[in-house]
Design brief:
alpha/beta, eight-stranded mixed β-sheet, 8 strands, binds ligand FVH, RedAm-like_C, NAD(P)-binding domain-containing protein, 6PGDH_NADP-bd
């Protein structure tokens, strides 16, 4: 009988276990704490620091090393991840920290200008820099099926080196060497989200005083928004080609003609049109000014409004 050589020698040869990257995490608010737990669960050595020490101490039983101060935290790992309230808090927390030779990943929400300035600042401190924009709320962290992810921009080498570690809390999407691009993508998507929230608020306001169950409107709204969402691809194609009339199903003239219906309905329902009015004003302006070089008069849809927004 042939015996398994491992059994014969009674020696179980284990594949070498890849060492997990050590992580220092600065900031243990709702998001920082969620991030921390995923790295701990994945077996990464994790050093934590938080301005209010109790939040860091709470993670010690889960295996985190609690740094005695920020200098101790920064010294503990090459990879230093920052998740603080805003750019000013990053300034305050890291003032005087020795970042020479460190790889800094800043997940604090910033503007693109702040992110680029932060990248310059990191370079001047002798550190490499990646900026991140988190497209998730804390309960989505460490739950891949929730669909959250993080935009990264800045040092490509750093992103490639830490891709696996950064992918532990949420999927990663690298959007370029320009350190401001993660923040820009983040804000672009969230701006679209607020536009959607504005429309949803107006829709619920319209039925507020009627005998209509909001819960019956909700699935209709959700399905309608999902049905309309793919129109972003047509908008993108029109912007790329410069022809704003391609595939237009509802032209601007027709849509402008319909706007009084929306305003009158709002008035009749006792609802302020203030969320819709600025958009309608842009639609009317575009129609009045003609379609510019990218659209044949009256045949374009809403893409021309984008040109009115850009100074
Ligand atoms: N939570 C969310 O839904 C969003 C989802 C998308 C991404 N954001 C951004 O993530 C950053 C951190 O957000 P957070 O949820 O952790 O925020 P908080 O729970 O409010 O915790 C804030 C942490 O920042 C610390 N902090 C504030 N000011 C300072 C300062 N001057 N110096 C040092 N640390 C500071 C605060 O410390 P403490 O109050 O516990 O002492 C918290 O650790 C953020 O950019 C979101 O936009 C989250």
């Amino acid at each position: 009988m042939t015996r398994n050589p491992v059994e014969k020698n009674s020696v179980v040869e284990k594949a070498p276990v890849a060492e997990k990257t050590a992580v220092t995490l600065l900031g243990l608010g709702a998001m920082g704490t969620a991030l921390a737990r995923t790295w701990l669960a994945a077996g990464h050595p994790l050093t934590v620091w938080n301005r209010t020490p109790a939040r860091a101490a709470a993670l010690a039983p889960e295996g985190a090393r609690v740094a005695k101060d920020i200098a101790d935290a920064v010294a503990a790992s090459t990879l230093v991840i920052v998740c603080l309230l805003d750019d000013a808090s990053v300034d305050e927390a890291l003032a005087g920290a020795d970042l020479a030779g460190k790889d800094v990943v800043n997940l604090t929400t910033s503007t693109p200008v702040q992110a680029r300035a932060r990248a310059e600042w990191a370079r001047a401190c002798g550190a490499r820099y990646l900026d991140g924009g988190i497209m998730a709320v804390p309960p989505m962290i460490g739950v891949p099926e929730a669909g959250g992810y993080v935009f990264y921009s800045g040092s490509r080498d750093m992103f490639e080196q830490y891709r696996q570690t950064l992918g532990v809390p949420a999927r990663t999407t690298y959007v370029g060497e320009n350190a401001g691009f993660a923040a820009l993508h983040d804000v672009a998507l969230l701006s679209a989200m607020y536009g959607m929230f504005a429309g949803v608020a107006h829709a619920f306001a319209l039925i507020r005083k009627e005998d209509i169950d909001p819960a019956s409107l909700a699935p209709l709204l959700a399905d309608w928004l999902v049905a309309m969402a793919p129109s972003v691809h047509q908008t993108a194609e029109q912007l790329r080609s410069g022809d704003y009339t391609t595939g237009v199903a509802s032209n601007l003239a027709m849509q402008v003609a319909g706007t009084p219906t929306f305003v009158s309905t709002a008035e009749q329902q006792g609802v302020s049109p203030e969320l819709l009015s600025p958009f309608f004003a842009l639609m009317r302006r575009r129609l009045a000014e003609g379609s510019g070089e990218n659209g044949k008069e009256g045949e374009e849809g809403l893409t021309g409004l984008i040109d009115l927004l850009v100074h």
